[in-house]
Sequence to fold (32 residues):
Amino acid sequence: MKSWEISKKVGKNHENAKLIEIWGTYVINQIK
Fold:
């Protein structure tokens, strides 16, 4: 959920938020 908070802060730049969301998903997959 932290990645969602970051993407919300960077929500002004939709592309950056999308990249952060992908990065967050990548980290979650690494933890699994």
Summary: The chain has a mean pLDDT of 77. Residues 2-31 form one domain.
